[in-house]
């Protein structure tokens, strides 16, 4: 119930934010928040899921606060050395709920046509990316589908924007382009399936879960590299299986919880968050 | 088999109720001083400065009369990961330029002045942060900290920061952790008695792992939402209005000592950050040790 002299951050939002922060702390304090994964850290976490859910059901400020409390908690109590660095523990966590909220908001309102248009745009971008990376590699002077020999003339290579020298770099660049292309195609297929079945809400929630999880993973790993805790060549491959597992788990858990919440919310009636 | 006792594990720091000059400080002072020290340590990459910071933190720990073995427990638990990190920093960060003198090189492993410096600073930082964070939670209760944070953020209300609401959120969070833990225990026992498979964890199938925990996680969230609903109803029935015009049950009072401590830590931080610290190897070279 919003009255005139009440700020935008009303009672309902305060309480829901607080309770979700409590869930985040609980998941962190017990072993419940960790699931085993085959990678060096051995754990995928769902501790960031309350922040994503807060972003979806109560808005960006709630998401920010839940993420902040979760970060503060892991900073104060963690025994993992690098989480004793506030720039690793707290700062990245602030953004989980915020990015989740905006991806949810931007997708939940779309209709069929917008969905198909979006799929078409992504497909076109994938095609352009693949075309560029196999025909006109910046730095590899010759445009051809056949694997091009690197141009020995330094004047040609140094003129390009991205200076890829030698065959290994070109091959790596093409491999990355193919991976991005495959991910893009998968995104298009999933997007069309969801839109065809009119599961836009589901699509928005899943996307929010993926974006929130990626925000957490990318920013934390980025901070670990920037702060010199781990070299990039070691941590990025080490964290990949965990990142994948976390995305899958976060999507399933978030979708289940948000569906339950919407059920609860429609039963309740009255004011909404 | 599963460990059903969750409550035992849920501690947010460990308050040690003894009387010491640190305990008597206002929570605002402690938060500010700790923040200054954390900022100072975070953004300092000189070995000598970090050593001085560490000594200062140790001195604070001694003044607070907190038993050091409590503090060290956190350090020892994290030691295996710490060693792993140090080995990696030592061997693999040697390729970061400027690397300084190269001491050892074999294949892709390279030990340089930079990598050793990074390792030493990381170690000092970790120890200092473990001490600082334990000291905060050991010398002040969570309630004190929340009140302190609320008062500290109050000036930012003018630019739209909901400081009172933020404190209330933290209060609710802390209040509900034990309740939800109890709830969770009940859910786990209920699901286990129905034959839910909570013990086995599948490593290679994250989707299966997620589905395994759904019978625990979804009821946990639903319970939390229902409790939230009850609390909202209770607060709205009592016409709760946050912010302006509310009086407080706990009033904080700053003494002269508090202001002095804040000023001293702030000055200390500035001094440590802006003093042009010489590098350790150049200082040692001045005394004739030029092997570093």
Structural write-up:
The complex is a heterodimer of chains A (273) and B (292). Chain A is mainly alpha-helical and 273 residues long. Chain A has one domain: Arp2/3 complex 21 kDa subunit ARPC3, CATH 1.10.1760. In chain A, helix 2 crosses helix 9, helix 5 runs antiparallel to helix 9 and helix 9 packs antiparallel against helix 10. The N and C termini of chain A lie close together (9 Å). By secondary structure, chain B is mainly α. Chain B has two domains: 167 residues, no CATH class; 92 residues, no CATH class. Chain B has eleven helices and two strands. The relative contact order of chain B is 0.15. The model of chain B has no long low-confidence stretch (mean pLDDT 82). The chains are: A mainly alpha (273), B mainly alpha (292). The interface between A and B is large, with 66 and 77 residues.
Compute the number of helices of chain A.
10
Kindly identify the CATH topology of chain A: Arp2/3 complex 21 kDa subunit ARPC3
Are there runs of chain A of 5+ residues with pLDDT below 50, and where? 1-6, 139-148, 157-165
Structural class category of chain B: mainly alpha
- The structure class of chain A reads mainly alpha
